[in-house]
Amino acid sequence: MSSAGGQSSRPIISEASSPSHPAIHPYTQPTRRSAEYSGKGQSSAVFLDDDGPTSTRASAVPYVKIFPLCLSRVAEGMIFAVILPYINEMIRGFGVEEKKVGVYSAMAESALMISEAISAPLFAPLADSYGRRPVFLICVFLWGAGAVSFGFVGSVMAAVVCRGFLGLLAGAGVLSRTMVGELCDKSNRIQGFAIFSPSLTVGVTLGPVIGGFLSNPVPRFLPPSFTLLTSYPYLLPSLVAGTTGFAAWATSYIYLPETLPPSLRRSERDLEKTSKPGVGQLLRHRPFQNVLILYGLTNAVQFTFEAIYPLFAFTRKDLGGLELPTDTIGVVLGFSAALSIFMTISLFPVLHRAIPEDIYLVLCLLCYPLATIFFPLIWASHNSAAPHAGLGWGTIGLMSMQMLIRRVGDFSCTLLDTIIFETIPSPSLLVVANSLTFSIGAIGRAIGPFIISYFFSISTHFASDHPARQAVWVIFALLGLPGAWLAWNMRNGTGGSGSGSAGKGYGEEEERVELMARDRVAEEVRI
Q1: Residue 374 CB neighbours (<10 A)
Q2: What is the predicted pLDDT for the residue at 278?
Q3: Cys-Cys link to 367, which of 64, 86, 110, 409 (CB 3.0-4.6 A)?
Q4: How far is C-alpha 118 from the chain's CA centre?
Q5: Cβ contact 289:502 at 8 Å
Q6: CATH label, 63-496, candidates 3.30.565.10, 3.40.50.300, 1.20.1250.20, 3.40.50.720
Q7: What's the sign of the alpha-carbon dihedral 198, 201, 203, 209?
Q8: Which is higher by pLDDT, 45 or 255?
Q9: What is the pLDDT of residue 265?
């Protein structure tokens, strides 16, 4: 079968000279052999040398196929973040003493992360055995159902159990990232992830706004005749978040193809007969170990910000917080996440071109402890105002500076998503690597918020002028330093060697997998 341009769909291996080399991880090297493929409306050229792969002509990004995965990513962020503006108010409504609200709300938030950490690795063999699509569809549908059910909880234990159930569906998050990588090739993967990665931030942007404005709708904007919403004041935001999950399921069912059909699974098994990489090999691979640790540390800090900020904003002034109403908290969180989207689109690529990637990662990670310093400054500024006064301009200025610095810190997560492809020894381990990073990231997301929320709860027992009141922010700042230290050591090469060979091994084998897959598809089309 020939393509529209008359070229054979069989791969052609040729020599190429002086290929342009795109931005890759510092530990990988460019390549010179060219593997060209043309067929089914796509065309790409990939160059190979002795040290790894690069690409000169990008394939078209499959936007329609990626859209359901982006929507599922939005649902993931929304389901996580929709409870943040009201979770503390909900826990207090269950009869919990205010000084203990932070601990129990952290339990509800951490339950999702802990169950994600346990369940994420289980989805790799399921997806390899039964295909990506069916496992993904089941997880996304149950995601929507679980999100709706959270609106009916009536106790702390029910809230913890419901969030824990949502975490057991971690396969949706693992497989969405894996399928984006498989729908794209080496030439357009950066563009694909540039669309996919910000989708989580869109969900995190909309989640707090929806949770803040739609919680307790009676009698704020609905009459008392809505008795169901009177009995369950947090059902409406849960319905909206769950509907997003159902929409992701519906669009995935219609538009999302299987990225690992049986024929391609056979191709991977043929390849594995010669290389036989495994989970043990992956975990022993030093470059991947470093990235795995960084995922855990970075997620711990990033999601601690997501959890502690609403608690800090909700807590009374005399206990060390800002004492803001729920709808105001939703606006602040939504603005902060919207700022993240804008900065990721406009500022991130500019800095990426101007700063070496390894230095860029270190600087981003250092922004987290720097942003933490602003918490006591914001409290002091707001506490000096009148008892029932709104946010003053000085407080707003400090909050804005903190948001800017913190969102630059979040660039580190985008950098890690691109680095991971060059730190695994085989593309057949991609779903395993994603499940492991998702699991370790979930552990960080569980431990970080719980530790800092616990110390914040303890700090409320001290007088406002006591040094122990501010100890929580010192601990939080220290939590952000190990990641920057590890990234700096990786830059100096003391974090482990062999990354260059990792890029080489991954790149060459990925080319073989892609070419074998395209051959197989071409043969099936002929038949």
Answers
A1: 19
A2: 66
A3: 409
A4: 17
A5: no
A6: 1.20.1250.20
A7: negative
A8: 255
A9: 60
pLDDT at 11: 36
- Please give the helix or strand (H or E) that residue 35 lies within, else none: strand 33-39
Q: State the pLDDT confidence band at 523, using cuts at 50, 70 and 90.
A: very low
Residue ranges of domains in the chain: 12-60+506-526, 63-496
Question: At residue 504, what is the residue type?
Answer: K
Query: Which single residue is written with the structure tokens 């059910």?
Result: 149
Rg (CA), the chain: 24
pLDDT tier for residue 477 given thresholds of 50, 70 and 90: very high
**Alpha carbons 192 and 180: distance in angstroms, whole number:** 7
Residue 191: left if φ>0, alpha if ψ -120 to 50, beta else—which one? Answer: alpha
Are 420 and 437 contacting, i.e. CB atoms less than 8 angstroms apart? yes
Which residue, among 122, 115, 130, has the nearest Cα to 174 in the 3D structure?
Answer: 122
Q: How far apart are CA 298 and CA 148, in angstroms?
A: 29
Mean pLDDT of 256-284: 67
Cα angle value 291/297/300 (rounded, 5°)? 135
Percent of the chain at pLDDT exceeding 70: 78
**Which amino acid type is present at position 222?**
L
CB–CB of 452/372 below 8 Å? no
Whole-structure pTM value: 0.71
* 174, 297, 424, 428 from 436: Cα distances, Å: 9, 14, 12, 14
Q: Strand pairing partners for 42? A: 39
Distance CA 395, CA 387 (A): 14
Over residues 195-227, the pLDDT tens digits come to 787 788 788 778 888 988 899 998 888 888 899
pLDDT, greater one: 11 or 333? 333
How far apart (Å, rounded) are the C-alpha atoms in residues 513 and 527? 21
Token pair for residue 325? 């109403």
Separation CA 415–CA 423 (nearest Å): 13
In the prediction, which pLDDT does 496 show? 42
Total residue count of the chain as it appears in this document:
527
| CA 226 and chain centroid, separation | 36
Average pLDDT over residues 68-73: 94
CB-CB contact of 109 with 447 (8 Å): no
Cα 476 to Cα 473: distance, rounded to the nearest angstrom:
5
